[in-house]
Design brief:
single chain, alpha+beta, Nuclear Transport Factor 2, Chain: A, Glucose Permease (Domain IIA), nine-stranded antiparallel sheet, five-stranded antiparallel sheet, 9 helices, 32% strand, binds zinc ion
């Protein structure tokens, strides 16, 4: 087909006189020239560029070339945010030029970097002309604010990294102390303290614990990119204390808050904390096998003694009003709190009172009211604590506390389902661990 048309063209051309053919060829060449030049005209910039490129390739040692080929020096800097720091003062300290900081601050239209907090970390990448290329304000292990240079401004946005959780089961038998035995089984400090908090309304960890008591729990570990970042919340815990069993299950209520409840839906929180001195102030010295000399007198004088280091905080065990704050002979510096018509508590031998503790002042459960001392008749620094019901001395370790509100009716049905699942999980773990231990 193609051969056929070429043959036909040749046949037509051969019929023209030679002079006509020359004219036709020149005309064709002329047209080609016009087309080529006009296209060069339109694209003059790129043609100039290619011209320069050609020159620079030849001129390898010139200074212009060094600028083109040496990569920009980028410095990575880190700073901790100090008291009275502003974004401006930190970046000045890191050597960033003022003009650039203003550009950065002006780009922060949503004020994401306006509320930086003391103690948090700021990471910056700075180029060799002291401009910020990127900035990372680290709020916690999984979130922060990032600024990225884009031409003459910055793109600033909050970020949140993906986290993964895994469950850990532990069973601890107490032989020496709840704390030491927990650590030995590999429980993190923070998880033991959470456990003490959760059962702090039911168990006095200083006086109630006996060798052979045990606890088991399931808690979360939080990972970011496969790296453990946090020992998370306890999901369920069981405490076997002198023949009584306490169980607490974490549950997220429909109002968004998380609380601990018994399997039946009673709040673990009660109107009174079992102990007025935090376990953490005593645990290091207190050992089940080595009774403190003061403790053996417990029952003889209507109260409970807590041997703790001088200056350890003493907390109000329940909400109430200061009824007395002053000096009484044997009791020394004393505070008495009236919690209701029926209940009051008394704290003796204090080193001093907290500021703002005066007769008539309202206090909240857990609030520090004073500090352990040895004022009055005391052989050494300790807190003498009394619990009165209807004006009568009552053993603070045995008194039944009024309950806080149980789980609300709206959340109850789903909670019971959740609680049953968690109880089965805990039981399965316990059986599994027992069977592994017996092998
Ligand atoms: Zn006492």
């Amino acid at each position: 087909m193609l051969r056929k048309t070429l043959k036909q063209i040749r046949l037509i051309l051969s019929t023209y006189p030679r002079r006509h053919l020359y004219l036709l060829a020149t005309g064709f060449a002329l047209m080609l020239c016009i087309v080529t030049f006009s296209s060069m005209e339109l694209d003059s910039d790129s043609s100039k560029e290619s011209l320069y490129n050609q020159i620079s390739i030849v001129d390898l040692d010139s200074e212009v070339n060094k600028d083109v080929f040496i990569p920009e020096l980028i410095e990575f800097k880190k700073a901790e945010i100090k008291r009275n720091d502003s974004l401006f003062s930190i970046l000045r300290r890191l050597g960033v030029i003022e003009k650039n900081i203003i550009t950065l601050v002006n780009s922060d239209t949503n004020n994401l970097l306006a509320q930086i907090k003391v103690g948090k970390i700021l990471e910056v990448e700075i180029n060799d002309s002291n401009k910020v290329l990127s900035l990372n304000y680290i709020k916690d292990f999984k979130s922060g604010v990032r600024a990225q240079k884009t031409n003459e401004t910055y793109k600033i946005e909050e970020y949140e990294l993906l986290t993964e959780k895994s469950l850990v089961f532990k069973k601890v038998e107490i032989n020496n102390s709840l704390y030491a035995d927990g650590l030995r089984e590999g429980l993190p400090d923070s998880v033991i303290m959470d456990l003490v908090y959760i059962f702090g309304w039911d168990i006095d960890f200083i006086h109630d614990i006996r060798p052979g008591d045990s606890y088991s729990l399931i808690y979360e570990e939080v990972f970011v990119n496969g790296e453990k970042k946090l020992d998370g919340d306890i999901l369920i815990a069981e405490f076997l204390n002198q023949n009584s069993t306490h169980i607490a299950i974490r549950y997220k209520l429909s109002n968004g808050t998380s609380e601990y409840f018994s399997p039946e839906g009673r709040n673990v929180k009660k109107a009174f904390l079992r102990s007025p001195v935090k376990f953490s102030y005593i645990s290091s010295k207190y050992n089940l096998k080595r009774k403190h000399p003061i403790l053996h007198t417990i029952r003889s004088h209507n109260g409970v003694d807590y041997a703790a280091k001088r200056g350890s905080p003493v907390r109000a065990t329940g909400d109430g009003t200061i009824f007395f704050a002053g000096v009484k002979n044997g009791c020394g510096n004393e505070i008495e709190i009236k919690h209701s018509e029926d209940y009051s508590t008394r704290y003796c031998h204090l080193q001093k009172f907290s500021t703002r503790i005066k007769k008539g002042k309202k206090v909240e459960q857990g609030q520090t009211i004073g500090y352990v001392g040895s004022s009055g008749l005391a052989t050494g620094p300790h807190l003498h604590y009394e619990f009165h019901v209807n004006g009568k001395h009552t053993d603070p370790l045995r008194v039944k506390f009024p309950n806080a509100e149980p789980i609300n009716t709206g959340d109850r049905k789903e909670y019971i389902e959740h609680a049953n699942n968690m109880l089965s999980s805990l039981k399965n773990y316990q059986i599994l661990t027992n069977s592994l231990a017996s092998k």
